[in-house]
Amino acid sequence: MDASLRRELGAHLRAAREQVTPAQAGLDGSGRRRTPGLRREEVAALAGVSVAWYTWLEQGRARTTRQVLDAICRVLGMDAAAHRHTLSLAGFLPAAPRAGRTPIVVGEATRALVDGWATTPAAVLDERFDVLAANRAYRLVWGDPDAVPAEWRNALLLLAAPHIGGGPYRVVAEEPLLRGLYEQFRADTAHWPDDGRAAEIVALLTKERPGRGALVGVQGGAGLRADHRRRRGGTAGPAADLLPAAARR
Q: SS3 breakdown of the chain: % helix, strand, coil, rounded to 5?
């Protein structure tokens, strides 16, 4: 695990710790607390590790084992998605790396389906959130993906840098959605650790949002919520998403 991922893992754990109350962890929450959530020593004691080692982990200075991370995730009450994201940051994949990459080709049936949503902005995305196709309503609201540089033609990047997309609308309070999409992106692309395109997206995101600190400051990793409808597979090819967007001024 490289230094940047260790720092990202530490920020993720720290954000999760700050969201857990002592009562949720079965501790006495009475008395004055200078910081929100659990103390580091409380997490360390409940997870069965030393305070110094857990502090180093949050600071991105220590490596760990999957068993220890599982214990920490249980202490912090992480759901399945956040637990999976934690493991992926530490290099412990929940499944074996997928064999090979099959280029996604958007079929005519999928294009017809997306174009048929005349009043609903919709796009076809792959597992990296690269925009493979978009309907007219999407282009009117969010801008034409084909009009931006190819390396920026990505829903995650365009959300992080709305000035590049050029659409007349943008998401209000986009940080929660951006964090969720970023965590899902990291979990999905972890199956291909040598993927050059995924590395390019992270580099561009880092350029636009230096440090990416705001993106990892969240406990959950749920990604696309119920109001961002999702469709896997079908004629769009493997791991393709259809994402109708709700435009807001």
A: 50, 5, 45
